[in-house]
Structure formats: C-alpha cells, structure tokens
Amino acid sequence: IISLIIYMANKKRFPDPATKAKTDKGATMVNKEEIRMSATEIRQRIYALFAVFGVVIFFWLSFHQNGYSLTYFARDYVDLSVINIDLGFTQIKGAEIFQSVNPFFVVFLTPFIMWMFGSMKKNGKEPSTPMKIAIGMGIAALAYVFLMAIRVTPWIMIGLYFILTVAELFISPLGLSFVSKVAPPHLQGLMQGCWLAATAVGNSLLFIGGILYTTVPIWACWLVFVGATGASMIVMLSMVKWLERVAK
C-alpha cells in the first residue's frame, strides 16, 4: 500500500514514453550495416543475460533455504528456549522467528551497502556489476562455511542470515540493474521477466535442500550449497571481462 501511494504521488513526474517516441521519430536514420551490427550486439547482450540468469539460479536455490532447510536446522539444533518474546497479546517463540531476520537486515543494510558502493565509485574503485554478483556468490558460500565451522547458537543463526543478506544485496538489486542496463530496449520487459523466471526456477529447486537435510550428514548438506555458490562465483569470475565488455 505504501509503495502504491508513493507511485501515485510521483506518477506525474515520470517521463511520457509516447512523447519521447514522437520526439525521436525520424531523428536518426540507420543504414543496413548499422542494422546488421545492431542485431549482432542484441544477440551478444541476450547471451550475456542468459548466462547470468543461469548462474543466479544456484544462488536463489541456496539463499532461499532460509525458509526451508535452515528453519528445520534451527528447530533441530538451536536451543530455542532463550527465544520467547512476549508482546502481550501473543508470544513469539520457535524457529520461525528467524524468518524476520533477513527482512530486517535488508532494510537495515541497504543504505550502508549503497553508501559503500557510492564511496567506492567516487574513488574510482567500484567493481563492475558482474564482479559484484561474483562477490555476492562468494559471500553466500562463506555463509554456509560459517555454519559448518561454528558451534550453533541463536546468535550464530542471526550471523548466518546477516551474511546471506549481504550476499543478497550484492546480487538481487544489482542483478536487476544489470538486466536493465544490458537488455536491448525493445526486450526490457521480457528480460526483466526472465530474471524473475530464474528466481522462480531457483525457488522451485528448494526441495533439494529438504532431501539433503533428511538423507545426508548435516555437514554434507551445507557443503552442497557451498559448492553450488562457490562454483557459481567461479563461473561469474570467468565471465566478468566478457560481461563488462557487453555492458559497455
């Protein structure tokens, strides 16, 4: 509702696409060579986007375990007796309370992450969006390494969600920004939809976490997600130069 109010209040300030189309009509003429080159560029941009879409599937598969196998893990391995918040009209206790940690950190950390990138940009040290996505994959892998190596307490679970949220902020909004920048103008909506489709595919594979959690040792379960995100990071790093070139 708040988002809708903000949208309606600012709607008149948005540029009118119809007006822009009338202004641009007939302003430029392109020859056959430019059309051919444009088609080649469009193809390269689509290839680049689908490469990123394929990689982020594994991030969402690993990240959204926070609503599945990680919640089961908190239920089975964390001493939840210390978590009992009395709000008067209800009590909050149990593993489900950890579901509130990620949304809190998203709101809390986003301004800091954006400030950090802005500061790095001023100093000419800001990494490219593909590099940020690769870093986010690495951070997600570290989150599961962290879970494997540390004795489990409620604070450790909060630390885990903190790390995963940082990874999310390196990938989710920046990934959408990358799609917006790289997608050919006439395919903007379709490519944004494909990004969301990649997210949906990752979510549809969450059952893998449940199978692993119930069939293999717990360290092996988390090791799979370390491998998935770590491999995704390596793939992204191998494509960074190409993706940066396409984005330019």
What does this structure look like?
The protein has helices at 2-10, 17-24, 32-63, 69-77, 101-122, 129-149, 154-182, 188-204, 207-215, 218-247; strands spanning 84-86, 91-93. With 248 residues, the chain is mainly α. A two-stranded antiparallel ribbon has the order 1-2. Strand 1 (84-86) and strand 2 (91-93) form a beta hairpin. Helix 6 runs antiparallel to helix 10 and helix 7 runs antiparallel to helix 8. The mean pLDDT is 85.
What's the story with the biggest beta sheet? 2 strands, antiparallel
Structural class: mainly alpha
The ordered string of helix (H) and strand (E) elements is HHHHEEHHHHHH
Strands side by side in the biggest sheet: 1-2
User: How much helical structure, as a percent, in the residues?
Assistant: over 70%
Amino-to-carboxy terminus distance: 37 Å
Which of globular, elongated, flat, extended, rod-shaped describes the shape? globular
- Unreliable stretches: none
Beta-strand percentage range: under 5%
Q: Using DSSP, what is the number of strands?
A: 2
Individual helix count? 10
Radius of gyration using CA atoms only? 22 Å
Mean pLDDT: 85
